[in-house]
Write a sequence for this structure.
């Protein structure tokens, strides 16, 4: 396993500290229900090019009354392997919130969860949403609390705008353009897509939250250093 990032990786907070973070895989509020392998700290690490792109997107979002909030950035390859190992176990504690209508096997076959080789592991992908500029911080997730389906109208009380589903909601309603998502939620998805497209990213159509940098400096290269500030060169 790698212990240090190659030159060119940065901590997003050093590039734009105004972008909010909620790194879900460093905690227990995710579809596995525990911290994921390789996430030692709740940080957003990215290539400098991707971080600069997010800073451009943040300037655009701010001008329209919003802030970006990132859920996941660089992801070690070992995290994808952790997902794969988890899929072969009976552990299903977070199903009611994150994949109420799918089996664990379908999370992979339907294109919602990847293994060790994803663009996240190249440091050029980001999962994110929009938050009103002056929104108060959301309440913390309490492990063991009753779970509400991520497709429900009154789901976990995130501080973001309405996107029609929660983050990492593994359901067809999370497809960026889904006919069942209308009104403000559809408008917010399209606004986020426009902001990110203008900043040099492209959306993954199965997930309204996932964006890849168009011109990756490390295409088809997958890293495994941990998510920790000390891993930066």
């Amino acid at each position: 396993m790698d212990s240090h990032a190659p030159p060119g990786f940065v901590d997003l907070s050093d590039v734009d500290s105004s972008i909010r973070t909620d790194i879900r895989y460093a905690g227990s509020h995710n579809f596995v229900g525990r911290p994921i392998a390789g996430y030692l700290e709740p940080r957003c690490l990215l290539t400098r090019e991707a971080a600069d792109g997010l800073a451009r997107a943040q300037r655009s979002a701010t001008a329209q009354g919003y802030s970006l909030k990132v859920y996941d950035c660089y992801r070690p390859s070992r995290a994808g392997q952790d997902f794969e190992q988890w899929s072969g176990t009976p552990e299903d504690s977070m199903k009611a919130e994150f994949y109420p209508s799918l089996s664990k096997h379908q999370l992979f076959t339907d294109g919602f969860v990847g293994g060790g080789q994803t663009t996240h592991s190249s440091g050029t992908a980001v999962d994110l949403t929009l938050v009103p500029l002056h929104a108060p911080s959301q309440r913390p997730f309490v492990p063991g609390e009753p779970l509400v389906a991520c497709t429900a109208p009154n789901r976990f009380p995130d501080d973001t705008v309405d996107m029609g589903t929660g983050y990492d909601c593994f359901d067809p309603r999370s497809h960026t353009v889904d006919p069942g998502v209308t009104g403000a939620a559809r408008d917010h998805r399209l606004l986020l897509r426009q902001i990110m497209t203008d900043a040099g990213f492209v959306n993954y159509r199965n997930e309204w939250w996932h964006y890849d940098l168009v011109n990756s400096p490390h295409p088809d290269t997958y890293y495994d250093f941990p998510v920790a500030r000390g891993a930066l060169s």
Q: What stands out?
A: Strands lie at 9-11, 20-21, 45-47, 66-72, 125-132, 201-203, 210-213. The two ends are 16 Å apart (CA to CA).
